[in-house]
Amino acid sequence: MTRSALTTPPPDATRPRPLPGAPAPGAPLGPHYSRCFGCGDGHPNGLHLTALTPDGISVVAEFTVEETHQGAPGLAHGGVLAAAMDEVIGMSVWLFQRPYVTGRLETDYLAPVPVGTVLHMRAWCNGMSGRKAYLEAEGRIGSPDGPVAVRAAALFIEVAMEHFAKHGDIQTIADEHHEYEVNP
Ligand SMILES: CCCCCCCCCCCCCCCC(=O)SCCNC(=O)CCNC(=O)[C@H](O)C(C)(C)COP(=O)(O)OP(=O)(O)OC[C@H]1O[C@@H](n2cnc3c(N)ncnc32)[C@H](O)[C@@H]1OP(=O)(O)O
Q1: Mind listing the pLDDT tens digit for each residue in 65-116?
Q2: What is the pLDDT of residues 150-180, one digit of tens each?
Q3: Which residue in 32, 143, 158, 182 is a FRET match for 172, CA 20 to 30 A apart?
């Protein structure tokens, strides 16, 4: 992965460990919000990522590239692939039971991704320091050990829950609050 200093953990960063109450290995991770573009099962034309955690500290997910995700004819749009990487990384940092938002996302595109591909994605945390989490993800074509098409490195910043109430839709947060308690 080609990454900048901003997404490289500092020497004093700590490695995350699974938290008590983390989803059981292999258990599916439900959407954190039903209308989320990345994972929401109620989004009419979102990415509909399906995910699980193998170990409580990383996430594997599948993204089926549909016609609505095209850039060039028959090929996934790079921005859509970046959104998928952002989402799977967001799912992985949510395992640490604190709210984070994307501060910076760097993406390498290594191979075109045709419509109809199932992109097998994996995201993990390379270190945490203060409010900052340093994360990485990859997307492989066709199978978990298929060729790597996309890699990403990210800096996520921890925020207070008030971030979502202040800048977002507080009524919807209240309506879906149970989701945040039981799902990553
Ligand atoms: C009840 C409701 C629940 C809802 C449940 C949600 C569940 C969780 C969703 C999971 C999956 C979502 C899907 C994927 C995740 C998204 O897509 S999140 C949406 C996209 N991201 C955003 O909207 C973030 C917009 N940016 C911001 O709000 C603010 O800039 C931030 C990131 C909160 C930082 O602002 P701040 O809190 O004022 O902090 P600030 O002092 O500026 O920065 C803190 C540190 O981070 C560094 N930093 C900040 N930004 C950057 C940057 N871009 N580059 C490098 N360094 C940076 C600063 O330099 C500073 O470093 P130090 O000086 O401490 O060394």
Answers
A1: 999 999 999 999 999 999 999 999 999 999 999 999 999 999 999 999 999 9
A2: 999 999 999 999 999 899 988 887 888 654 4
A3: 158
Please report, for the domain that includes residue 121, its CATH number. Answer: 3.10.129.10
Closest CA to 87 of 110, 60, 65, 67: 60
Strand partners, 122: 60, 138
Give domain status of residue 48, yes or no: yes
Q: For residue 152, what are the domain limits?
A: 24-178
For residue 131, give the amino acid letter. Answer: R
Ligand 1 site, CB within 6 A: 6, 32, 38, 86-87, 90, 94, 99, 101-104, 131-132, 155, 157, 159, 161, 164, 173, 180
Domain assignment present for 108: yes
* pTM, two decimal places: 0.94
In a domain, 159, yes or no: yes
Ligand 1 centroid – CA 128 distance (Å): 14
Question: How many CB atoms are located within 10 Å of the residue 53 CB?
Answer: 24
Provide the number of structural domains found in the chain.
1
Structure tokens, 85: 């990487």
Report which protein residue has its CA nearest ligand 1's atom 21. Answer: 102
| 5 falls within a domain | no
For residue 142, how far is its CA from the centre of ligand 1 (angstroms)?
A: 32
What ipTM did this prediction achieve?
0.95
